[in-house]
Design brief:
The protein is α+β, with helices and mostly antiparallel strands. Helix content is about 25%, strand content about 25%. The strands form five sheets. It has a nine-stranded mixed beta sheet, sandwiched between helices. A two-stranded antiparallel ribbon has the order 1-2. It has a two-stranded antiparallel ribbon with strand order 7-8. Mean pLDDT is about 85; it is low at about 15-40, about 40-55 and about 60-65.
């Protein structure tokens, strides 16, 4: 009996000491909004970076290293969502494991990023499965072979010319989605990518978010359905549409936004890019994402060229 009471008292003492220790730790951090204690480690809330470390790094994610700093820079105005986020050297994406394509891909582009660089050779790049993705959810080149669809870049290779490694990483299949080739990926979509690059002549910093959409369509029975094709043994989803939401940051700090949705189909060459401008909230509702949520819309100077 005495032994049991002693054991009970010892257990209560341990619990009490642990509670006291935790309480003291909480007091240390309660006045510092920029830090949090997690798993015994002090984490600092960096600009635009989730405090609980939800970024899963496709390349090493190091404390205080270049990759971490670049992620904070790219995601300065917020993450559209936090589902399977992965960081690369020069872009960040959220991967849709069910559909084997990105949910969104985020880029930060400047004049320097798109300048001609003799040290960068796109022809040396190969489309490569991303082995940081679990094999169950990974797309393969064989999925695209014979499908009739191109492996369409979400982060455009032409936006990442600072280093050969940067452009090579845009060829990971995690950055791809099936796109109609003739009349879309090689033409209309390419014109939109070039338009985004031209914005660096107007703005010091251009932030671009790109991704797929699966939009409903009314069928002959009068009902709305979301239907899309899948390709390959890994059933890679073929999006019905693609979007780009872009924010240009001028030297004086003023911000403009443009938003586009294009159907994944052959588009006539004479169709101007501006004809695919849409209200950004229509993309947010369709994609289930919030773009640039650290910028209140009232702080934008223009949306799609119109004064806010």
């Amino acid at each position: 009996m005495i032994h049991k009471r002693f054991l009970h008292l010892a257990q209560l003492s341990v619990v009490g000491l642990a509670g006291y220790y935790i309480g003291q730790k909480e007091k240390i951090f309660e006045n510092n909004e920029n830090t949090v204690l997690q798993n015994g480690k002090i984490l600092k809330n960096m600009p635009g970076l989730p405090i609980f470390g939800t970024v899963s790094a496709a390349v090493p994610y190091t404390d205080g290293g270049h990759v971490k700093d670049r992620v904070s820079q790219i995601m300065k105005y917020g993450f559209p969502g936090l589902d399977n986020v992965r960081s690369y050297d020069d872009f960040v994406l959220s991967y849709d494991r069910r559909n084997r394509v990105p949910n969104w891909v985020f880029e930060h582009i400047t004049k320097e990023h798109i300048m001609k660089n003799d040290a960068v050779d796109r022809s040396k790049c190969d489309f490569t499965p991303d082995e940081s993705i679990h094999p169950f959810f990974r797309s393969q080149n064989s999925d695209y072979k014979g499908s009739g669809f191109d492996r369409g870049h979400m982060a455009a290779a032409g936006n990442h010319r600072l280093a050969q490694k940067h452009v090579e990483q845009t060829f990971f299949l995690t950055n791809m989605a099936p796109q109609v080739g003739e009349g879309f990926n090689r033409h209309a979509w390419n014109r939109l990518e070039k338009h985004v690059r031209k914005l660096t002549k107007v703005y010091d910093n251009v932030y671009c978010c790109t991704g797929p959409l699966y939009l409903p369509r009314k069928e002959s029975d009068g009902k709305m359905y979301i239907k899309y094709q899948v390709i390959g043994a890994n059933t890679v989803a073929v999006p019905t549409h693609f979007y780009k939401v872009v924010v240009g940051e001028a030297s004086d700090g003023s911000l403009d936004m443009e938003a586009y949705v294009m159907p994944n189909q052959k588009i006539p060459d004479e169709t101007p890019v501006s004809s695919y401008m849409v209200a950004p909230e229509t993309i947010e509702k369709a994609a289930g994402l919030l773009f640039f949520d650290k910028i209140h819309r009232s702080k934008l100077n223009r949306i799609n060229g119109k004064k806010v």
